[in-house]
Amino acid sequence: MKQKQMKKYPVILLLLIAAVSAMFTGGCSSRIETPVPEADSTIVFPPKNPAGVSADIILYRKLDKKTGTRIDEGNRFTIHLQRSLHALILLKNRETYSGRLMMFHIDWIDPNGKSLYRKRIDILPGDTMSELHSSILITPQRRQPGRYSIRLYFFRELIAEKIFYLQDEPLIIPLPDEELAANLILYRTVSKKNGKRIGEGTAFTMKKKRSVRALVVLQNRYAFDDRTLKLHLKWIDPDGKTFYRKRITLRPEDTTSVIRSSVSASSEKRVPGNYSLQLRLNNKLIAEKRFILKPAKAKSKRKGKH
């Protein structure tokens, strides 16, 4: 029994500290009543003490899995199936409360002014956390178009707010498959020094250990970021036969817009003639590039002096 009481004691103590802090902040506001809009459209209620805690609120749709960068930051978002809205809150003057309990509430407000989701976050003494995170679903089943907001409270005192808008998906989306375009670039190799492409063009000389490389840059990729794209790259020989095929599946969470491929241009594997590279989406041709493979020039024998 004693061990259980000892485990509960720190929790009770923290609750008492939070209650006392709330009494002090509740009796006399520590904030300037007139809100101040910041450059990122966050509405801030500045602390009377310049060293007091403040915050910036950043809204975005999702994170890029490869780079970790935020995608679609702003204050206008489209209601869509399987879509969420994320909030990143950056605390300012966090060091002022180092070693003390900090209690925050994140409150998402609907167009009628009612709370649709509230999250409490306690930062314990000794914790150096300076970022807060929260998210909500913005699917048609959960949300209606309108003016929303997210509010941040510090010990139940409003310190920051951000207004945002949810809108219906435009009827022109998704675009038909034919509107996904691509730019096909053929080249011989890449410089090891500066990474630049060498030998861009449509005519390549056949040599041992030589390749033809392709860079495919997708256009209008953003219009398909909620669909799985099944692409095929087909390398076609002078007889019209596919000698190499590459399948690429781009899922909604994959923001890739560049595809690479290569084939051997060795005289041991290829014959001189007219070739082509095709890009297909769901078996529909959306881009093609024709090129020529030509034999290497025979080296002339130099006559020796007599």
- Portion in strands: over 45%
Total domains? 2
Largest sheet: 7 strands, mixed
Helix content: under 10%
Q: What is the CATH homology-level superfamily of the largest domain?
A: Macroglobulin (MG2) domain
H/E element sequence:
HEEEEEEEEEEEEEEEEEEEEEE
| Radius of gyration computed on alpha carbons | 30 Å
Describe the protein's architecture and organization.
- With 306 residues, this protein is mainly beta.
- The protein has two domains: 29-167, Sandwich (Immunoglobulin-like), CATH 2.60.40; 177-295, Immunoglobulin-like.
- It is built from one helix and 22 strands.
- It has one helix at residues 2-27; strands at residues 36-37, 43-44, 54-60, 62-63, 70-71, 76-78, 84-92, 102-109, 115-123, 131-137, 146-154, 157-167, 181-187, 189-190, 197-198, 203-206, 211-219, 229-236, 242-250, 258-264, 273-281, 284-295.
- The strands form six sheets. Strands 1, 2, 6, 8, 9, 11 and 12 form a seven-stranded mixed sheet that branches. Strands 16-22-21-18-19 form a five-stranded mixed sheet, with no helix packed on it.
- The longest helix is centred in the first third of the chain and has 26 residues, at 2-27.
- The protein is elongated, with a radius of gyration of 30 Å.
- Residues 1-9, 11-27 and 171-178 have low confidence and may be disordered.
